[in-house]
Design a protein that fits this description.
Shape: globular
CATH architecture of the largest domain: Orthogonal Bundle
Strand order of the largest sheet: 1-2-3
Number of strands: 3
Largest sheet: 3 strands, antiparallel
CATH superfamily of the largest domain: Citrate Synthase, domain 1
Order of helices and strands: EEEHHHHHHHHHHHHHHHH
Length: 367
């Protein structure tokens, strides 16, 4: 059998050169187009980060205020697709229903297509959630910011400034993250010149897997089952005894604490100021987090399993009234801008992604 010179899971393999983001797993650092996560999360709006990511990939890209207005108009345009939400789609999982609606959008490579794709997950997520609750979808308000409009479409009323800031921080934090599974899928599809919609649909399909973006929801289930900090150690040890994975801990790249976890924890704390409920929920989650880190260190001393983005994502989105089974939809609402930017970057490079595989099956029978 020939020697395998690659890497299972493409570990350590450089598959693209990018100007979009850099993930330093050893240092616990995320850089998006020359800006550290600390300089963006809680500091920049999602529209500003969309402009940052799209810069240089669209000749007609306007400045941020005009881009924000165009994104608002795009939300209004894609709302027409909500009419296709029938009982069959509503019966699917939330992310499957959102993906099905996004598949109705035409393919293209222009800025208009890109903005419709960025707009769509926000509009469709709110509509799907409301329909599953027996409520009518609410049309977008093109004059609002992206985060503010998503929350208004979800709740049927204007969100507080703290809530808008919290969701904005989340969308910014998850907007791009190196060559993760969904971004790589989007780039592979884009390399065939299939179009931006096809690339984004591929990204969503990869994101929904529980080993990628489909895991924040179960964090809420874990917290609810633990119920009290006094139960945390026994519950966590029992989960590991059963061979379960502790959701919200460990990451393929980060060998130290995921910097996005701290960014979202700050956002949750800021949202909780003046609230009678959220600070207590945050304190409980922090106690569970501390217990989990102790248990993981004792049970898996050879691995560095630290808090990842999923843990405080769950707490933040729960506080914003998103149901846990729709958390991945909100993740997609933030990450779509990154997928689009990577797709455009891949096409600009002009190279079809075509790695090789090593055949390890049986040899043909002798004649």
């Amino acid at each position: 059998m020939p020697a395998f010179e690659g890497s299972d899971g493409l570990e350590g393999v450089i598959a693209a050169h990018t100007i979009l983001s850099d993930v330093d797993g050893a240092a616990g650092r995320l850089v998006i187009r020359g800006r550290s996560l600390d300089q963006l999360s809680g500091q920049a709006t999602y529209e500003e980060v969309v402009h940052l990511l799209f810069g240089g990939f669209f000749d007609d890209l306007p400045e941020t205020p005009a881009l924000a207005a165009a994104l608002g108009r795009a939300r209004a345009e894609v709302f027409a697709e909500v009419a296709a939400l029938d009982a069959r789609l509503i019966g699917l999982g939330a992310i499957e229903a959102v993906r099905a609606l996004m598949a109705r959008l035409p393919d293209g490579d222009d800025l208009h297509t890109a903005l419709r794709l960025v707009a769509a997950p926000a509009v469709f997520t709110a509509a799907v959630i409301r329909r599953r609750q027996g409520l009518q979808p609410i049309a977008p308000d093109a004059g609002l910011g992206h985060a503010a409009d998503l929350l208004r479409m979800l709740k049927g009323q204007a969100a507080s400034q703290a809530e808008v800031a919290g969701l904005d921080a989340y969308l910014v934090t998850v907007s791009d993250h190196g060559l993760n599974a969904s971004t790589f899928a989007a780039r592979v599809i884009a390399s065939t010149h299939a179009g931006l919609t096809s690339a984004v649909l591929g990204g969503i399909s990869a994101l929904k897997g529980p080993l990628h973006g489909g895991a924040p929801g179960p964090v809420i289930g874990m917290l609810d089952e633990i119920g009290d900090p006094a139960n945390a150690q026994a519950w966590l040890e029992g989960a590991l005894d059963r061979g379960d994975r502790l959701m919200g801990f460990g990451h393929r790249i980060y060998k130290v604490r995921d910097p996005r976890a701290d960014a979202l924890k700050r956002a949750v704390r800021a949202m909780g100021e003046g609230s009678n409920i959220l600070p207590g929920r945050l304190a409980f989650a922090e106690a569970v987090e501390a217990a989990a880190l102790v248990v993981l260190k004792a049970r898996k001393p050879d691995r560095s399993l630290q808090t990842n983005v999923e843990f405080y994502t769950a707490l933040l989105l729960e506080a914003l009234a998103f149901p846990p089974d729709a958390f991945t939809c909100v993740f997609a609402a933030g990450r779509t801008a990154g997928w689009v930017a990577h797709a455009r970057e891949q096409v600009a490079g002009g190279r079809l992604i075509r790695p090789q595989s090593l055949y390890v099956g049986p040899a043909p029978l002798a004649a």
